[in-house]
Amino acid sequence: MIGILSDSHDHLTAIKKAVKIFNKNQVELVIHAGDLISPFTAGEFLKLHAPLEAIYGNNDGERDGLKTAFSDLCILEDFKDISYGKRRIAVIHGHLPPLVDSLVHCGKYDIVIRGHTHQFEISNGKTMLINPGECCGYLTGKKSLVLIDPHDLSYEMVEF
């Protein structure tokens, strides 16, 4: 099981809840699709029982601080190309929609994970597009994440 979240925007209470959900569901990998915002959030992500893959978002201005704070968890980049079992996963924040569309249609990936819009979205096709919504709940009033089985691509959107 893979846990997916995005746009946590340094909301510590929401991050704590998300980490508890991931740990309770014994996810094997957590993917964060950007907008971590503050280096102090790394302390909560250190409580994960699974590895973390995370990328920068458009609001992650303190990149040097984030890079240092998250250095024990993962290497932060603008884009990730992840192989997980037989699945190829692209992770991009998504503030440049043509890049998201290109990744979905290029045929290289089984799953493209994006954030930025704060809107939950999953579309199935040759390539599955996943936007887990927003962890912070600031724009929609809904805090959400996604749990996905990488074998059959079944998923659950979890509001918390």
UniProtKB/TrEMBL annotation:
Its cofactor is a divalent metal cation. Signal peptide: none annotated. This is Phosphoesterase. Gene3D superfamilies: 3.60.21.10. The keyword Metal-binding applies. Pfam families: Metallophos_2 (PF12850). Belongs to the metallophosphoesterase superfamily. YfcE family. One of its GO terms (molecular function) is hydrolase activity. SUPFAM superfamilies: Metallo-dependent phosphatases. It is an enzyme of class 3 (hydrolase). Residues 2-149 form the Calcineurin-like phosphoesterase domain. It comes from the Archaea. It comes from Methanobacterium alkalithermotolerans. The keyword Nuclease does not apply. Its EC number is 3.1.4.-. PANTHER family: METALLOPHOSPHOESTERASE, PHOSPHODIESTERASE MJ0936.
